[in-house]
Amino acid sequence: MKTKALLLLLFSALFIPGANGKIRLPAVIGDHMVLQQKTKTNLWGWADAGKDVSVRCSWNGMTYKTKAGNDGKWILELNTPSAGGPYDIVISDGKEIKINNVMVGEVWLCSGQSNMDLPVSGFGNGEYVEYAQEFINRACSSRSLRMIQLERKFSITPLDDCKAEWMTNNPESVGEMSATAYFFADYVQKMLDVPVGIIVTSWGGSAIEAWMDKPTLNKTFPDTDFSILENESEYKKIPVLHPTLLFNAMIMPLKNYAVKGVIWYQGESNIGNYRKYPALQKAMVGLWRNLFNNPDMPYYFTQIAPYCYSGVDNRESAFLQEAQFKSMNEIENSGMIVTIDVGDETSIHPQKKREVGERLAYWALGKTYGLPVKYKSPCYKSMEVEDGKIIVYFDECDKGLHNGPGRTAPIIGFEIAGDNKVFHPAEAKILNSKGARAIEVSNPDIKKPVAVRYCFKNYQPGYLYNNYGLPLAPFRTDDWDK
Question: What confidence score (pLDDT) does residue 16 get?
């Protein structure tokens, strides 16, 4: 019996991470990585239980020491310098591992569903990205822009590692990288002139609940149904729609990595429960901030673009857009970009991802980094009725609004309704007498208007902008259910 027990002990030791005297690192720590500057960050991994582990960083020559636990896990907290590099890091438990070409700068986590997934080179079904050729061809490995993209995976339990690899800014890696994330990083890196790293963890078709853990969902919505998680053959069919599965496999492995902030592009898969979306998004942001030990972590997200869905005149996506707008006002240190002008009636994956990435970058640069960058879209402020017409006033347009197609083109997207709650197309004109910060809306057949809507349909692009090229956010002045 003793011999059998000893054999079992030796056999099981072979499967302890870091066993057999070889230290192991998680996928997110490796050559070419970017560490967040001027902060406390972590390095971690696995070694033989009880082994002494040392870490030496070339930026200061200091050696940090710790000891692997009984489970073989170890973690070290260290201070990072101001942006710079390349550096190297030597990790040893008696046998050295060297991490090469490490940069220190700004790190952003990029997540969501297929519109975050869409690579610079496009999907293989004819869905493409504008400016792809330009950005792929001029990619240069010497530039201080690095990226890592997690392999899609789901799990019923939290994981501590993933499959991924840091890449330099070369044509091949740029072509396969998330277009939204890359255009964001490209703009931020140019403006700050420091190394930038993006961590992309996204999966097409995913619901926001898949990116949250069970305690958070239980607290926010106690009626959340987790029963499908008891049936592996069922939840593995469409894991992206079921709670916790992506959080466990594609967020948890990153929890020790210091990031500056998050950009998020998701919402299409939550159109059916749009009423819950503000609370869900707020809860998810709180969860992630706790996980990354970053209570004020910036969170910038994308309002979904117009698309036909079940029909042009239907409004299910408009209700989700409205819910997203509400989220911005309920989540501290957050911001939402508007994409009402860059949708595609026939494709849920609009090709204008450069505009999306750069508008997200405006928020980061203006709000997080304090640069003199205009980042807020104009939005509805108030309305009043005068002589059978509605006058609508707007914020975030200090120099007024302008009509994108041209001064003489009709302004599109406005609807007006009387107390019968039936909306009709409306004529709209910018009131220069009010500094171009108000619009008069009317329909000759509606003598007593009570409500106005702008681009409040599944597919209704809008081309009203402020002087900084940021589009007016879709809105409605009523609270009706249709």
Answer: 44
| The two structure tokens encoding residue 482 | 């249709």
Could you tell me if 138 and 182 are in contact, meaning their C-beta atoms sit under 8 angstroms apart? no
Domain C-terminal end among 68, 102, 136: 102
Q: Are strands 299-302 and 96-112 parallel, antiparallel or unpaired?
A: unpaired
Number of domains in the chain: 3
Residue type for position 416:
I
Write out pLDDT tens, residues 377-420.
Answer: 999 999 999 999 999 999 999 999 999 977 778 999 999 999 99
CA-CA-CA-CA torsion sign (213, 329, 312, 352): negative
DSSP code string of 369-409: S--S---PPPEEEEEEEETTEEEEEEES-TT-EEETT-TTS
pTM of the model: 0.94
Range of the domain at 26: 2-102
Which residue in 234, 228, 229, 208 sits closest to 220, CA to CA? 208
Burial label for 56, CB within 10 Å (0-12, 13-18, 19+), is middle
Tokens of 89: 């890091």
**Is 373 inside any structural domain?**
no
- Give 274's strand partners: none
Question: Is residue 43 in some structural domain?
Answer: yes
Q: What is the per-residue burial (b if ≥16 Cβ within 10 Å, else e) of 431-459?
A: beeeebbbbbbbbeebeebbbbbbbbbbb
Q: What is the pLDDT of residue 341?
A: 97
132 and 31 in one domain? no
Strands across the sheet with 389-395, in order? 379-386, 389-395, 438-442, 427-430
Euclidean distance between CA atoms 48 and 68, whole angstroms: 7
User: Are residues 396 and 350 both part of a single domain?
Assistant: no
Length of the chain equals 482
149 and 114 in one domain? yes
On whether both 119 and 150 belong to a single domain, the answer is yes
- Do 468 and 445 fall into the same domain? yes
Same-domain status, 236 and 215: yes
Encoded tokens for 365: 């640069």
Tokens 């636990």 -> residue? 69
Tokens found for residue 268: 């299409």
